[in-house]
């Protein structure tokens, strides 16, 4: 069963359209959602959570239609946005009391545990917290009501490298239960390279690719070559290229299989950032 299935989700605004977005998050996996600012990541997350009215498409969470089972599904989903949606005068202790009324499975001990891990004072008002500490508080809330699916919008933004690494370890601990799943939107693709099983790339409201991370990092290749080799390389399936002053860069989705064919060319495995940049700025047939 898929933890999350997004089918042809569309949301139209005056100057932007989330256009028939479809992909799924298999149960027991982490899906990284990437794309430049304005690509539609946050709009998609809001559509998935039924926080905006969709113009088309459906969202299933553990096989249930979200817009028909919202109360039941709320228990199964932990959500973290880049801002906390609580009044600035509240403190974690007060939030815990509110959450106990909101979630039937609210675990006060688990919440206190995460507050301790994140070094959050239960009596500190939200308005006194830094952006990074507010993010940690949001994550503590999401992890404290026995959620099976976490939906995270830029959860490591504003955190230093050590704090980010600690947080990634917490996400991996959450995934020790094979029924758990995560959809995580992030600009920090190195974080996704550490923890994600799959990557979905959105550009201008459309899905450009949705594949396993291993396929992207181990099967894809970037080839640097002169014009004579480029003429042949650009005809390979799925090739994307950019021209520089003295050479071409060509992204090949099937590059691993083509290493011997183009052994005279400089070829290397790309990072997720490099793949994203090639698709955004490159040309294709």
Summarize the structure.
With 285 residues, this protein is of the alpha/beta class.
The side-by-side strand order for the widest beta sheet comes to 6-7-8-3-9-10
CATH T-level topology of the largest domain: Rossmann fold
> What is the straight-line distance between the termini?
36 Å
What's the number of helices?
A: 10
What is the overall pLDDT average?
Answer: 92
Please report which band the strand proportion falls in: under 5%, 5-15%, 15-25%, 25-35%, 35-45% or over 45%.
Answer: 25-35%
> How many individual β-strands?
15
CATH class of the largest domain: Alpha Beta
Please trace the helix and strand order, writing H or E for each element: EEEHEEHEHHHEHEHEEHEHEEEHE
Assign the CATH architecture of the largest domain: 3-Layer(aba) Sandwich
Low-confidence stretches: none
Indicate how many domains the architecture comprises.
2
Shape: elongated
The largest β sheet comes out as:
6 strands, mixed
Radius of gyration: 21 Å
